[in-house]
């Protein structure tokens, strides 16, 4: 017991707390693992638990963390910056699902209908809420939570506590990956959106040839039914682009950490 206490000394505690700042900033920007309904005590315990596990290899190693208040505050801010930037990759992937849901909502006509989303604790359109819930479920189905923990450990391996990558060198890599993620988000909704555009074209032809029909009344239920049928037909092929969207998280992290090391 005394040997364990001697290993887990003040330097290790400082390392663990700094690492907690990195992980807390990451989880704060992850809508899945840091949902607003999660109690504060659970958030703190999860963050400290992850930090203790990842910081255990540093026990007994030479101190690399600052001891003075000024440098310690700078190290804390660097850890928050690193964690927030890692969380940005996760947030962009979920935003890709949100973009897909919003595009479908607008085309179907559900954009004006708002429901309560339990994940974000806010009101959002119907299909956008469904896409957000699907994104959360699919994240666990592809073991995204395991890869998330491995990504945190990889960031600590590349940039130990107290060090941070160059944000200036990583800006271009992050912007490039963000464009790719939002392109994949559009690809999720593209078949449905294109199908509904064809429905709009068909309704326009009908309105041109049968002006006595009220297209405003007829078009809304037709587009809703067509949109739901297109969503049902596309659901079977949804997994491949959704998997690429989550793979973009780790591409973003790898590109950022590689560019930041230059």
Account of the 3D structure:
The two termini are 43 Å apart. Strand 1 and strand 2 (122-125) form a beta hairpin. Helix 2 crosses helix 3, helix 2 (10-28) packs parallel to helix 4 (69-108) and helix 6 runs parallel beside helix 9 (239-260). Helix content is 76%, strand content 3%. It has helices spanning 2-7, 10-28, 40-55, 69-108, 126-141, 144-158, 167-209, 215-235, 239-260; strands at residues 114-117, 122-125. It has one domain. The protein is built from 9 helices and 2 strands, in the order ααααββααααα. A two-stranded antiparallel ribbon has the order 1-2.
What is the structure about, briefly put?
The protein is mostly helical and 262 residues long. It has helices at 2-7, 10-28, 40-55, 69-108, 126-141, 144-158, 167-209, 215-235, 239-260; strands at 114-117, 122-125.
List the topology elements.
Blueprint (H helix, E strand, L loop, with lengths): L1 H6 L2 H19 L11 H16 L13 H40 L5 E4 L4 E4 H16 L2 H15 L8 H43 L5 H21 L3 H22 L2
Antiparallel strand pairs: 1-2
Strand content: under 5%
Q: Roughly what percent helix?
A: over 70%
Into how many domains do the coordinates divide?
1
- Number of H/I helices: 9
